[in-house]
Amino acid sequence: MKDCIFCRIVAGEIPCTKVYETSNVLAFLDINPVIKGHTLVIPKEHVVNIMDIPDDLASELQQALRRIGNGLLQGLDADGFNLGMNNFESAGQLVMHAHYHLIPRYKGDGLKLWAQGSYESNEQMQDIAGKIKSAV
Ligand code: 5GP
Ligand code: ZN
Questions:
Q1: Superfamily assignment of 5-135 in CATH?
Q2: Mind listing the pLDDT tens digit for each residue in 40-88?
Q3: How confident is the model over 89-98, as pLDDT tens digits?
Q4: Which of 62, 64, 86, 89 is the most exposed place for a label (fewest CB within 10 A)?
């Protein structure tokens, strides 16, 4: 897609720092890392978010995520890694070409990714779960 920054990276029109590539998947360092080594894993095909990724491609992406996760553990001596994906603008998706974030983590690095809250009551919790269940 012409105006998509990640399609332009795939096409080689914009440089990236590549860490892994197959015929359908590309992984490169995020230009603004949460922690150094923060890697973006994308399908080469332009799809907007997780809702559009065909199952066979999702499976290839999953394999790539595990390989790169291992790369962070072995290559950067990370103790763990976060896997994240922003889907839709309201969830913080800025680039509308599906991508997974892989962020290396170290014991005591202090990074807190999720601010957590609580339910007002058990009824509220059950009500919300019911709405999700009925739409799944
Ligand atoms: P989103 O908020 O859409 O999940 O994340 C988009 C990510 O892409 C951000 O973390 C941002 O730093 C990264 N990014 C945006 N433009 C570029 C670019 O041109 N090159 C690279 N390597 N990363 C980019
Ligand atoms: Zn694209």
A1: HIT-like (3.30.428.10)
A2: 999 999 999 999 999 999 999 999 999 999 999 999 999 999 999 999 9
A3: 999 999 999 9
A4: 89
94 CA distance to ligand 1 middle (Å): 8
Query: How is residue 135 written in tokens?
Result: 């739409």
Residue pair 6/27 in contact (Cβ under 8 Å)? The answer is: no
- Could you list the active site residues? 99
Nearest C-alpha to atom 20 of ligand 1 is from which residue? 31
**And the tokens for 40?**
């973006």
Maximum CA extent, the chain: 53
Delimit the domains of the chain by residue range: 5-135
Determine if ligand 1 sits within 6 Å of the CB of residue 27. no
